[in-house]
Structures are given as C-alpha cells and as structure tokens.
Amino acid sequence: MPGPEGLVGATPRSLGFRMPAEWERQEGVWFSWPKDQDTFPDLIAVEQAYLQIIRVISRYEDIHLLVSNEEVGQYLSDIFQEERIRTEHLIMHRIEYADVWFRDYGPSFITREKDASLAMVDWTFNAWGNKYPGLLRDDTIPSEMNKELTIPRFVPGIVLEGGSIDVNGCGTVLTTEQCLLNRNRNPGLDQSWISWYLREYLGCCHVIWLKNGIVGDDTDGHVDDIARFVNNNTVLCALAEHPCDENYSSLMENYQILKRAANQDGTPLTVIPLPMPGEVWDDNRLPASYANFLITNQVVLFPSFGDPNDEIAEKVLKGAFPEREVIGIDSRELVRGLGTIHCISQQQPESPKRELVM
Description:
Layout: E1 17-18, E2 26-32, H1 43-57, E3 62-67, H2 70-82, E4 90-94, H3 102-105, E5 108-112, E6 118-121, H4 127-130, H5 141-149, E7 153-154, E8 166-167, E9 172-176, H6 177-180, H7 191-202, E10 206-210, E11 227-231, E12 234-239, H8 248-260, E13 270-275, E14 294-295, E15 299-304, H9 309-320, E16 325-330, E17 346-349
Parallel strand pairs: 2-3, 3-4, 6-7, 9-10, 12-13, 15-16
Antiparallel strand pairs: 1-5, 2-17, 5-6, 8-9, 11-12, 14-15
C-alpha cells in the first residue's frame, strides 16, 4: 500500500498516527493571501476580513501565510505595520498558488501519540471533480510546504479535500455520500474502500455518512457547511428554518441521521441545531453557513452575513465553546467566492517534535 516518503508500505495508523480534533492544542493556522478578483469581486473587502482573522489568531498562535512573491510579502508587511497587527507570530511562505482554498488543497496534519511527532497526509486535489482546471496546480501545495517543514508526508493517492471531513480526534469522522462517493472523485472506490482510507490515514475507525450538502456548494456537499464536532460526542448540525427553503429537506435528513448515530465508543451523539442564515444570493444562491467556523486555541471565528440569525448562531457557538471567545467575521464578500472561514484555513496541531522516531 502507499506509504510516506522513506517508509514504503506503512500507513499512518500502523505507525500510531491520528488526526487531532480541531479544538486540540494548535501550533498555528495556515492561509493563502487572497489575490484573485475573479474569485472575489470586492477583493479589498475580503482582504479586510483576512486582516481581522489574522489580527485575532496571531494573539495566541502562529499564522502561516502563503504569498506568491516578494512584492506581495512587502505589501503585507506594510499593511500589518499600518494596522498595528502583531507580526512576531506571523510566518510568510513564498509559494506560488492559484487560489485561497487551503482547507481543500492543503495537507491534513496528523500526530503520533507516543512522541507527538507531526506528519502530513497529502491527498490528491482535483479541483472538486475537475470543475476548475486553472486550480489543479494547487495539488502541489503540500509537497511545496514540506520543503520547509520536512516532516513525514503520507501520500494515499486518492482524491479528498479537507472540507469533506470532520473528526472528533478519538476515532470518528463525519463526511457525506454526495462528496466522497461522487464519481468525479474516486470512481474506482466504493464506500468500504473510502472508509479504509479514512481509517488508515486519519486513524478513524468509525465513519458517520451523512447524505447531501447545501445548495450553492460547488464542492459537492462538504461536511464543514453542515455538521461539525465540538467535542467527542457533540455535533452542531445546520438546519433550515422554513420548509420552503431549498436546504430544508436535506439538512433535516442529515439531522435525523446524526440523532440516530453514536461515536466510536457507542455513545449516542448529542446533536445541537445550528441555524442557517437567510438565503444569500449573487447570481445564484451562495453556500452561506454558520457551520463553516474555525476553532483556534482561544477563539472560535464564525462567518457572519448581516443576517438576524447571526446573533442566534453566536449564542449557539458560545454555548458549545464556553471557554473560548466567539467572534463573528463579516463574510458577505468572502462567500461570493463560494466558501468562508473554515474553507480558507487549515490548523496545524501542536507538536514539540518534528522528526519521526521509529
């Protein structure tokens, strides 16, 4: 079977690795600086959202930021100085990239229990079923990152995006049939094979298969727009308020699946409804969801949309994370690119040791 560089035949699980939950201690968070006005018509507003995100997170942990060239790096250095944003925890990486969807083309970071060794899983990125040929080159980002990180890199050889999975760190993973069983991803693999890869590469022995994602999501139903773990056996699940909403039936179906589900230990899940914002439109309905929040060491950042349900979502998140500050980030322009805060980020777990010790 595929293995990491220098460790042919091994899988992460066989070496004691697992993917930590997002609420576990982090060393930092990775982003790519926005640059494409075709993705974001109001690029300045999106830059302001990024600056707010960076300002908050950099108070507590590292920000790893991909920049395309030295000119962009200098531009950002000037902005950070003008905005009085702390830079002691900011690390810029000169890596060429096509767009900002780091959750999907970046690696899944994994750690080993016995020595806290850090490694990465480098999935194949095919731009959400080859929808966007110009973004296919972002498949190289994990290997480019690893020229600096120099950690073990496991290469499963299958298509998977980070937004299509959510783990509780103890052995359970949430995903959707619409995405991971889509014929535009891995047509030669059935559900049992996909489950095998999730077990062997993320350390997840139990898969909860939800059905479909939300309207307007060009990723074919990423789970990070519909359901998220907030602890070992508690899930926030997006629900539409009105039966006439296009998302109502599919989200209710996912909610009922979760209500019947249990975690890896057989403990029934606690499922907490999370409202959806009102319908957000451009030329078509946009995939606006409060479930696309990011958990960091001290703060939970969630997308806000200038909607009355912003306050309700904030209250739900504060109840789920009583020891963390909850901050809304205006994502009305960000979502025009068809994603928000979780989509543009990837957390790196805390790991005092970088070398794999066999």
